[in-house]
């Protein structure tokens, strides 16, 4: 009999602290022993999506998969096989679900390859855009806040989305006890990270952070508060002096801010106030405070980049760190999200994918519906000018982005239901999720906690750790491990020797662990590690500082940008802007300008759908995972946040059942009337399980926000703009 206990090893000392489970970790037994868990392999008997299944044997299931995979590869080629994105097991090794490095990927790599993707649902826009400025996307570790005098969070909510004891909040609290850093939170919502800890909350309209940044830049420039020596030495394109010759006259940042650029608009606080919803005087005060309090840690979460103009916003926020010279120093930050110290970790080798074509992660529904129409210049296909074949086979292992977590569920439903398009969908999960309902074959997996595996550290500031988990229980019913499933398929496909290399799951763990020990001799011996279960190591350098070497010697340690410097003006982006095919109002720009983007505050569509809707990552779930645990549901109700002013105008009272709708669909849930959200904005915890009669009215009754999000991608990353939504809200009458 096992219980869930917290890590109790060592003294709970800052930097070598105990890794305490969050709400979800503490309820893991309720997931493991949940009566709804999948027990047997099943095949679809009704229409796709109807969720009518019949129990079959493992042999029958595996034979069917092998036969269909062989047929589809023969008929359409390996490019027609897709492994869908999934974050269900991001911490794991043998069990890891990441699409390009999972056991499913290893199997496909041994079998001729598969169509892969680039980017993630988490941070497609920032991963694409930030490197144009810095060459990479790096931030200081949160623990470095111990050296800060001021912390400014743009839509960063670690209290909720880094909430375990190993997480960021712990550091934030402890570090601020030492440094006494003031904390300013800029977020449309009064988040849990604020919750009384903040010195100031500044509500901002979603998607307008770049306008705020531009107006603050205006104050800093006109009041002589910028770090001019830093801009001259380390940056390209701040003013005339460092503007690349290929750029147009007055194409530099200073001209854009002062109104000497193309648009002739000075980005004054007065200009930004009606866009952002932040009073002019607040913008001025904030700009002065950031520019004069050093070091200042400017950090953004990923909610602001999961938007239609996310690529521009992330670079605009970074400008504040650049203008004030806070990059590359202790207590400062680049403007990117916080990072964590990591100890070496070796994954089992997934092999090389012979298929080089990649789609943007968010574009897979289009690749199913109209694959050969997708091109490099219009849709961001990489490795080829265009796709040759549509997706015909989908692997969906430990993910729910097949339906619930992807945008516009009603469109996805139509695409997936058509069996002439995608011919086979294999789902491997623990539950009959929204995605699993669309499976042709549904395979019941063991959970990570039911098998031996190595888990690398997630966010723990200046501490790295490794967990070696052992099965907490024996396998029940006909649940099998992913390694067993893929090995059995390899047998049927005639690639068993390549796939297993003669190793068992335990042999692979030994193999990767020995490699880790070569990289870090501090790791104990295998058997010892197995017995102790956890290994922790403090960052010997103290705290991570992004771009520290560059700051110290930019000649010797250039950035990975083409110029080796911080590119405020990016010639690479200017080139893309000239060659890519974009639909209005999409824009790619060499400077980090403000542009409203589709479904933004200034989109004319707001006349019809007047509310901006953002989602947020909820403490009661990991996306949709844990969404079926009753005590977590009770403690973390699914409700839409609505300001009292809007509620009064709409006659909505706290707890009333409301409908949210737009051109994509409708979802219903109770309202939470609260001043914790600014007027004109609604917020839903993302990830609730879709519950709709798809043969009838298609109305969702569980506040699953992806029935009202769009599949239109962002301009540069072709990423998911799931925070850019315009909707109407009404009382259910
Ligand atoms: N408990 C829990 N933790 C999680 C997850 C989870 O589902 N549950 N998911 C994990 C994963 S995979 C990821 S990718 C991360 C996600 O991490 P994030 O993407 O950073 O999380 P979000 O909650 O989407 O957004 C953070 C904050 O941004 C605010 N925000 C939204 N739009 C804007 C805007 O335009 N401007 C500003 N200034 N703020 C804005 C939101 O109100 C929210 O408070 O969290 C991880 N951690
Ligand atoms: N509207 C909106 N949509 C969003 C977001 C948003 O902010 N707003 N955020 C996006 C982001 S950042 C992300 S990362 C994605 C996340 O989307 P997903 O990666 O799909 O994450 P989950 O919904 O947690 O789904 C994980 C699945 O893995 C399964 N699983 C868990 N453990 C195991 C296991 O041991 N074995 C197997 N086989 N399965 C297991 C769970 O049952 C669940 O079905 O969602 C994206 N979607
Ligand atoms: Mo994510």
UniProtKB/TrEMBL annotation:
<dbReference type="InterPro" id="IPR006656">
    <property type="entry name" value="Mopterin_OxRdtase"/>
</dbReference>
<dbReference type="InterPro" id="IPR050612">
    <property type="entry name" value="Prok_Mopterin_Oxidored"/>
</dbReference>
<dbReference type="InterPro" id="IPR011888">
    <property type="entry name" value="Anaer_DMSO_reductase"/>
</dbReference>
<keyword id="KW-0004">4Fe-4S</keyword>
<dbReference type="GO" id="GO:0005886">
    <property type="term" value="C:plasma membrane"/>
</dbReference>
<feature type="domain" description="Molybdopterin oxidoreductase">
    <location>
        <begin position="37"/>
        <end position="492"/>
    </location>
</feature>
<dbReference type="GO" id="GO:0030151">
    <property type="term" value="F:molybdenum ion binding"/>
</dbReference>
<dbReference type="GO" id="GO:0009389">
    <property type="term" value="F:dimethyl sulfoxide reductase activity"/>
</dbReference>
<keyword id="KW-0500">Molybdenum</keyword>
<dbReference type="GO" id="GO:0051539">
    <property type="term" value="F:4 iron, 4 sulfur cluster binding"/>
</dbReference>
<keyword id="KW-0408">Iron</keyword>
<dbReference type="GO" id="GO:0030288">
    <property type="term" value="C:outer membrane-bounded periplasmic space"/>
</dbReference>
<dbReference type="Pfam" id="PF01568">
    <property type="entry name" value="Molydop_binding"/>
</dbReference>
<keyword id="KW-0411">Iron-sulfur</keyword>
<comment type="similarity">
    <text>Belongs to the prokaryotic molybdopterin-containing oxidoreductase family.</text>
</comment>
<dbReference type="GO" id="GO:0043546">
    <property type="term" value="F:molybdopterin cofactor binding"/>
</dbReference>
<keyword id="KW-0560">Oxidoreductase</keyword>
<dbReference type="InterPro" id="IPR006655">
    <property type="entry name" value="Mopterin_OxRdtase_prok_CS"/>
</dbReference>
<feature type="domain" description="Molybdopterin dinucleotide-binding">
    <location>
        <begin position="611"/>
        <end position="722"/>
    </location>
</feature>
<dbReference type="GO" id="GO:0009061">
    <property type="term" value="P:anaerobic respiration"/>
</dbReference>
<dbReference type="Pfam" id="PF00384">
    <property type="entry name" value="Molybdopterin"/>
</dbReference>
<protein>
    <submittedName>
        <fullName>Dimethyl sulfoxide reductase, anaerobic subunit A</fullName>
        <ecNumber>1.8.5.3</ecNumber>
    </submittedName>
</protein>
<keyword id="KW-0472">Membrane</keyword>
<dbReference type="GO" id="GO:0009055">
    <property type="term" value="F:electron transfer activity"/>
</dbReference>
<keyword id="KW-0732">Signal</keyword>
<dbReference type="InterPro" id="IPR006657">
    <property type="entry name" value="MoPterin_dinucl-bd_dom"/>
</dbReference>
<keyword id="KW-1003">Cell membrane</keyword>
<dbReference type="InterPro" id="IPR009010">
    <property type="entry name" value="Asp_de-COase-like_dom_sf"/>
</dbReference>
<keyword id="KW-0479">Metal-binding</keyword>
């Amino acid at each position: 009999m096992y219980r869930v206990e917290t890590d109790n090893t060592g003294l709970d000392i800052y930097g070598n602290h105990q890794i305490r489970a969050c709400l979800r970790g503490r309820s893991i037994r309720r997931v493991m022993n949940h009566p709804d868990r999948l027990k047997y392999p099943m095949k679809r008997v009704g229409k796709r999506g109807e969720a009518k299944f019949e129990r079959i044997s493992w042999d029958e299931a595996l034979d069917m998969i092998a036969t269909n995979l062989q047929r589809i590869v023969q008929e359409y080629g390996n490019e027609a096989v897709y492994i869908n994105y999934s974050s269900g097991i991001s911490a794991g090794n043998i069990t890891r679900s990441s699409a390009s490095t999972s056991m499913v990927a290893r199997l496909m790599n041994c079998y001729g390859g598969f169509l892969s993707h680039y980017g993630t649902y988490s941070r497609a826009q920032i991963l694409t855009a930030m490197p144009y400025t810095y060459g990479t996307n790096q931030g200081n570790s949160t623990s470095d806040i111990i050296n800060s005098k001021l912390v400014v969070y743009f839509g960063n909510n670690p209290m909720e989305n880094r909430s375990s004891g190993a997480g960021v909040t712990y550091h934030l609290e402890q570090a601020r006890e030492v440094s006494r850093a003031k904390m300013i939170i800029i977020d449309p919502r009064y988040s849990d990270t604020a919750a009384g800890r903040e010195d100031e909350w500044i509500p901002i309209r979603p998607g307008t952070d770049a306008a705020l940044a531009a107006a603050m830049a205006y104050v800093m420039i006109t009041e002589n508060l910028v770090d001019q020596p830093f801009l001259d030495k380390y940056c390209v394109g701040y003013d005339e002096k460092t503007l690349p010759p290929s750029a147009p006259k007055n194409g530099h940042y200073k001209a854009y801010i002062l109104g000497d650029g193309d648009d002739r608009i000075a980005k004054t606080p007065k200009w930004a106030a009606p866009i952002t919803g932040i009073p002019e005087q607040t913008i001025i005060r904030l700009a002065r405070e950031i520019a004069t309090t050093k070091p200042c840690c400017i950090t953004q979460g990923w909610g602001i980049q999961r938007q239609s103009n996310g690529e521009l916003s992330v670079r605009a926020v970074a400008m504040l760190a650049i203008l004030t010279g806070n990059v590359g120093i202790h207590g400062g930050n680049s403007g990117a999200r916080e990072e964590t110290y990591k100890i070496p970790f070796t994954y089992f080798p997934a092999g090389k994918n012979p298929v080089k074509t990649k789609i943007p992660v968010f574009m897979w529904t289009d690749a199913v519906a109209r694959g050969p129409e997708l091109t490099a210049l219009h849709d961001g296909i990489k490795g080829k000018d265009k796709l040759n074949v549509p997706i015909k086979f989908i692997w969906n292992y430990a993910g729910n982005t097949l339906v619930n977590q992807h945008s516009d569920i009603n469109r996805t439903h139509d695409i997936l239901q058509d069996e002439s398009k995608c011919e086979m969908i294999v789902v491997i999960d623990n539950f009959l999720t929204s995605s699993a309902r669309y499976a042709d074959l549904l395979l019941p997996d063991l959970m990570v906690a039911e098998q031996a595996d190595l888990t690398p550290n997630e966010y723990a500031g200046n501490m790295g750790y490794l967990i070696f988990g052992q099965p907490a229980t024996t396998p029940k019913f006909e649940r099998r491990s992913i390694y067993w499933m893929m090995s059995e398929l390899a047998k049927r496909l005639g690639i068993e020797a390549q796939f297993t290399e003669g190793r068992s799951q335990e042999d692979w763990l030994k193999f990767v662990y020995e490699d880790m020990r070569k990289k870090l001799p501090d790791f104990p011996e295998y058997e010892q590690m197995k017995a102790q279960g956890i290994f922790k190591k403090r960052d010997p350098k103290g705290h991570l500082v992004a771009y520290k070497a560059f700051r110290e010697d930019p000649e010797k340690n250039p950035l990975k940008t083409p110029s080796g410097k911080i590119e405020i003006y990016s010639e690479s982006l200017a080139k893309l802007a000239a060659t890519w095919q974009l639909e209005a109002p999409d824009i790619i720009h060499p400077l980090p300008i403000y542009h409203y983007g589709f479904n933004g505050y200034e989109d004319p569509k707001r006349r019809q759908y007047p509310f901006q809707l953002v989602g947020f990552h909820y403490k009661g779930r990991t996306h949709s995972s844990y969404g079926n645990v009753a005590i977590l549901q009770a403690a973390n109700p699914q409700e839409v946040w609505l300001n009292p002013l809007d509620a009064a105008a709409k006659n909505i009272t706290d707890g009333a059942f409301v409908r949210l709708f737009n051109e994509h669909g409708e979802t219903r849930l109770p309202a939470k009337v609260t001043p914790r959200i600014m007027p004109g904005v609604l917020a839903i915890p993302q990830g609730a399980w879709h519950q709709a009669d798809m043969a009838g009215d298609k109305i969702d009754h569980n506040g699953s926000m992806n029935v009202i999000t769009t599949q239109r991608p962002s301009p540069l990353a072709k990423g998911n703009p799931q925070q850019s939504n315009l909707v109407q809200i009404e009382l259910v009458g």
